[in-house]
Amino acid sequence: MNQVFETERLLLRPLELSDADAMFIMDSNPLVHKYLWNKPVTKVDEVIKVIEYVQRQYQENKTGRFATILKETGEFIGWTGIKFVNDHVENGNTNFFDYGYRLNAPFWNKGYASEATKFWLDYGIKQMNIKEIHAYTHTENGASNRVLSKSGMHLVEEYTAEDGINWNWWRVSQNNLFI
Question: What's the rounded Cα separation, in Å, for the pair 157 and 171?
Fold first, then answer.
């Protein structure tokens, strides 16, 4: 996959194995995992497996999470993007498009998540012609819930996953995109 996208401040490109060290720094940070089951990674090999998994998604589904790079400095700040979920059930759903992002803590509260989210939702609906894009956030993750809400996603319901954690289920469709 050779696609590279730009927003005002960000470059969005496929994840590469060379991103492993920066991604490890992000995913080993307990703050980053506060609303992600509190399971930060402990070895760079765990991140390499994730990158290889995402690269398989590019081949199989022609979409996936992308490295998110700060244009000004070239820094890897996290990942963002749309993936096709067909390997598990979430809130009773499978075979759906899911938007998600994860940014390293030093890049929070700077508008990068909102900037990337607006791009991906617009791109997914208008360019990829996806009928509906879903997302899910921990119910207590106020920052991510605000990002999705102000980016045009609609809160559909709150649900409890099998592990007992409460999540918000979000959706945007071709009929209600207001980006």
Answer: 10
Residue 19 CB: number of other CB atoms within 10 A? 20
3-state secondary structure of 133: strand
Buried b (16+ CB within 10 A) or exposed e, 42-76: eeeebbeebbeebbebbeeeebbbbbbbbeeeeeb
Q: Where are the beta strands (DSSP E) in 37-75?
A: 64-70
For 112-161, how does the pLDDT look when each residue is reduced to its tens digit (9 = 90+)? Answer: 999 999 999 999 999 999 999 999 999 999 999 999 999 999 999 999 99
Distance of CA 114 to the CA centre of its chain: 11
How far apart are alpha carbons 21 and 75 in whole angstroms? 12
Do residues 66 and 15 touch, judged by C-beta distance below 8 A?
yes
C-alpha distance from residue 18 to each of 24, 45, 72, 171 (Å): 11, 13, 19, 33
